[in-house]
Each structure stands twice: as structure tokens, then as C-alpha cells.
Design goal:
single chain; alpha/beta; UDP-N-acetylmuramoyl-L-alanine:D-glutamate ligase; Protein-Tyrosine Phosphatase, Chain A; nine-stranded mixed beta sheet; 15 strands; globular
Amino acid sequence: MKHLFPVLLGKLARFVTRLRGGGSAFPGYLVLKLSPRFIQDVANSFTHGIVFVLGSNGKSTTTHMLTETLRGHGLNVFTNPSGSNLPQGIASAIVADSDLFGRVRGDIGVLEVDEGYAVELAKVLAPTTVLVLNTQVDQLYRFYETERVADMMLDAASLASQHIVSNREDPYLSKIWMRYPEGDAHTGPDITYFGASEAVVAASPNGLVNAPDYRNEGIDEPDHVALAEVTESGGSAATIDVRGEAVELVLPAKGLHFALDAAAALATAAVILGDAFSGPKSAAAFSAMKPAYGRGELLKFGAEEVEFVMFKNGASLQLNLDALPEPPEQVLLSIDEGTPDISWIYDVSFAALDHVDVITGDKAWQIATRLEHEGFRIGAVEPDLNAAIDLMRALPSPTRGHKTWIVNYEQMMLARKRIGYLDMENQR
């Protein structure tokens, strides 16, 4: 009963924000102001506890993969839509799923969490499991150093009550074992790793693009055995060895980074489910899985189709470019002010492209300068996204495949809305 009035107001606020055609974290903000323990009380109701998913890149995709894998095993899963990874966004997601008393039906909660709030939320929600994906160069204007981001994630992981699942291939996150001195590991959560075989990583043109760890250079790290390891990866197909069982998956999007996200999801599902984990059930869940919002989505664009290739930073842009099977026939490339400093654009290899038809967004001329130095053919530079989309629409239909839009998060949201997809991530 104590959450009835705040939830009523939150649901009313959600209804109003949906009428204006966009998502909003305001309902959650309102509820938390009136009932500060709201998300904590909901979290305590899940019989299988709470899972946090943290990382510089891949949080939304991995949360989606893990959620669908657990559902494929019969669990009722509550999750926050990708992008709603701050406290008020999580509260808004709960308001969307709850009854008027704030009760949510679910066996387990799987939450994408912003690394800057991870420790604060872990102290409130007491996660049973924390999955840490990667440390890549991202948002230095916000966090200043990659070491600080790694520490945020490792500090949050250390607050897990049962399981930590970490990336064996990440120079920072693989060192979670250092938090538990030899002989004392039994006093903390168990530590499990996911990863990719040396051959698979070597076959990637630019590796995994994880940030190097200069702080702990020279430390003799033990050989970690990965519970889930990518042994084959190509396009949208991957084979992942889970406890000696080869699980063949159809991924919701192309690329080694998605295969590694899948390994993370399967390793986490395996530690949660124990002996109930099933490779065939996991494969079936993946085969029915739709791409996470904006990540490899193929959407109608008039009489044609457009594939959204969404990136957040230099690392995700590089990995998405590396995953292209051939240079796209028609390409739009866009970054806006949501990425204040794009000096990293000079570290990215654009070898997967042979031209760009339209460059757009607030940073359009900076991108054009970068590509011009390398001799790329550029069709047009149009900073206004709406005008740029009109230019793409005016191109003749591609003779093969579809149009490809390589966009950062904010531009992806606006572009989807511009072509008629009004649903927002924190609306359900």
C-alpha cells in the first residue's frame, strides 16, 4: 500500500509523456522523490535476485541476450529497456511493468546499469550477480580515465552476494581475482569468466579494442578458464563452448563483439541456472531473438530498408565496421554533440568502407575532414539530420541489400523517429 500514491502519479506522468511521442525518466524521478525505497522494495521481491550488467559497450545487447536466455529456460524476467540505466530510468521501467501497488511479477531482475551509478545502486539493490563486460575508451569528458571506469565496475562487482562474471580478455576486468587474496576467495562471491579463443581474437582485424592496462603492467595473471568461450565467429553466427558443450547460435546482429556479448550472457545464465542450464534452450532463445533497439535493426524506409548500425565511441565504431561483410552500397554516417570530443576518430580504421554517401550530425565536418585525408569519396556533407535523410531517400534503390546508417546513439533515436518508428526505449 505504501507505494500506491507514488505509483499512481508515476503512471499518470508516464501516460502524459507518452502522449507527446517520447520516452521519459520523469515518472521514475517522481516516484523516487515520493518513495525513495521504491526500487529497493521491488528488488527484494525477486526470488532469484538481481543481476547487474556493466560495461563500456554492449550493456543493452547483453542485457537483452541474458533476459531472453533466462526466459527460454522458463524464468519470468523483469528488465529495464536499454537506455534506462540510471536510477530514475530503472524506476520508470518498474512503473511501466508494475500494478498500482508497485508490485512486479518476476523471478529475477536483469538490469543494465550505468557504471557511474553502479556502486550506489549495488548498495541499495544488493545484486546477487554482477556481469562486467569490458573497459573501453569512452566518455573521458565524464570519467577522465579508463582506470576510474574499471574501478567503478570492479567495486560494484565486489558487492555481488553470489556471482561475479568477468571478461577474461579485458586487461582490467580479468584482474577481479586480485580483490580476493589466495585462500580467502571462499569469503566472497564465486568468480566466473567468459572469453574468446586466441584464434578467434587473432582473426579480428582490430582485435577486441579493449583499453590497455598500464597500471598493472607486469603482473603475472593466472590462466583463467572461461566457462563460456567463443570458438567460432563469422557474421551473425557463433559457436560458444559452455562447460565443454558446443552451443551454436544465430546472433541478433553481426560481429565478434556480439559473439562475445553472447558468451557473457551464456556464462551468466549458466551460473544462475546451475544444472538447469541447457545449450539447446539457449540456442532456441537466440534464434527467436530480435536485435536490441538500434543495434543491427533492419527497418522499412519507404519501399526500401535501412540497417541501423549504432555505435557509442571509437571502440564500438571500430568493431561494427570490422563486422561489415563487404563495403555497403549506400552509407550514411552521423555523430552529433552527444559525443563532445571525437578526436578518437583518427584512431579508427575505415577500411571496411569504400565511400560515404552522406555525412551528417553536428560533427559532420570533422568526420568529413578525417575521411577526406584518407581519400574517401564523399557524396554530401549535410549537418542537418532531416535533410540528410532526405538525401538518402533520393538515392536510387540499392541494387543489393539495403541502405546502411552508421549512427551514434542520439542520432539513431532521432533517425528512427524521423522514418516513422516513434517507439522509444523506455516505453513498453
